UniProtKB/TrEMBL annotation, chains A, B:
Keywords: DNA-binding, Transcription, Transcription regulation. Belongs to the GbsR family. This is HTH-type transcriptional regulator. GO terms for molecular function: DNA binding. It comes from the Bacteria. It comes from Pedobacter psychrophilus.
Amino acid sequence: MQLDEAKNKFIQTWGALGSQWGINKTMAQIHALLIVSNNPLSMEDVMEELIISRGNASMNLRALMDWGIVYKEYKTGERKDFFTAEKDLDELAVKIAKERSRREIKPALKILKEVSSIDAKTSLEAGQFVNQTKKLYDFVLKADNMIDKVTEIKDNWVGRLLMKVMK
Amino acid sequence: MQLDEAKNKFIQTWGALGSQWGINKTMAQIHALLIVSNNPLSMEDVMEELIISRGNASMNLRALMDWGIVYKEYKTGERKDFFTAEKDLDELAVKIAKERSRREIKPALKILKEVSSIDAKTSLEAGQFVNQTKKLYDFVLKADNMIDKVTEIKDNWVGRLLMKVMK
DNA sequence: ATAATCTTTCAATATTTTTTGAAAGTTCGG
DNA sequence: CCGAACTTTCAAAAAATATTGAAAGATTAT
């Protein structure tokens, strides 16, 4: 396999993965492209490599920056903006996890709390509903907190050791 | 808030969450409905509650069963199939994680391995590409293995203690 | 202030995904 | 084997989502 072919395959695969995770294809592809680019790319570069429109490139680069996983860079003497991807993979994972938590899990928790707060005593059915949704609330809350825990762990001595033991 | 309103809100929210995670809305809604139903529901029941067509109900119930998070039940004397959701939340999380791993992560790993195996010596660029994608491969592999680790941990004494310490 | 260069916005269009519903398929009692 | 009860399939339609491209908006050099 040639470099070009490999690069392309990687970008396509990352794009497909993205859509399965609720991220749009182009966004994931731009991200992939930036990941394997050693130097910052301009919007023009991105458009050419992926054969997409200016508007599309602009919007998705913006979205990636909102996620905090792509950065703008300025080159002296150049008027264009250039872009690079977060390449520290731990950092990348943490940022994605935090952003998803903020955008999706937190709002869901709010609703879960709300619906599990109806009066459980009005009927057997209501009681069971409250019971079930409360459990769900606790579970999602616990899962959500894990994200922070993992970040903490990485920063302390015992934690790092533990991670090693866990292979 | 009344039970009906709460139930509906829960189903809608779960559905919206689902689509952000690459699961279709109806599938997530059916799942939500079954989660808060104390007794098994027939396809007819599901169609009525969610106001969806027979085909839609059939396909999505099938998909949920493929994920292993909804089960068919038979009632003696009844010809219809009835459905219940996995209600053990730990079990639910494990099943979802395993299925996603199988469907998405494993295939992605395969591609990553492939593209990171091109000859690194042909050019500087090729070398950097291989370096970057190899790192990615290792990272994704490690993350994927964590799923299994978490399952193991829950099953052993030290692990459970650890989980408690982690709050 | 004007022009040049570059970016963003957004209504229109294209693409992808989901849903429908009717026909075909299955299963089972008699 | 037939017919009733139920489920699955899948082509067509609808809905949701992504993409384009041209105009408007910025920003900087002259």
